[in-house]
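Human:
Take a look at this sequence-structure pair and walk me through the tokens.
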Amino acid sequence: EIYTTRDRHYRKLIKDFHAVKDADYELPEELTHVMRGYQSYGYKWLRTLAGCGFGGILADEMGLGKTLQIISVLLAEKLEGSIGTSLIICPASLVYNWIEEFRRFAPELTACPVEGGQNERRDIIAHCGKWDVLITSYDHLKRDITAYEDKLFLYEVLDEAQFIKNQSTASARSVKVIRASTCGSFNLLSLND
């Protein structure tokens, strides 16, 4: 009986991955005319991974819309009734780029940069449920990691994930402390990194 159950789940998992382009995950209506075909496919790929309980990697050339694909996933989750805050970790130079992209493509999502002095950042983290998305830098994450230890996020997104390629660094250890319920992590990489 155990063997049969495993086979059925395994076959369903393989079928889901084989038919990503035909997946029933609909783009948020606000973004249907914005996203290109390959971005829609990336959206369905991420939703399929999350639906199976996996994290994943979006690896593409710079400027091809990995940020928009992540935003579309987070927007769809909210529109479908998912409750929780997601955490985006990126280089400090990109924190406000993410904020602007949320304002541009998904103003329905409340995004908050985890910036300011240590007390200000810890206050934002302590009250993270007020926002749909927190955006922090790798440097701030490792400084504030104790404030994150008791938090459960909907998604954890690592932008420019090459920042954690050396597993012994404080940044790499810090992102592994973060707990996310929907999936592991989505790593955004540019192929020229």
Notes: The first helix runs from residue 2 to 18. The beta strands are 56-60, 86-90, 111-113, 133-137, 152-153, 156-159, 179-180, 185-190. The mean pLDDT is 84.
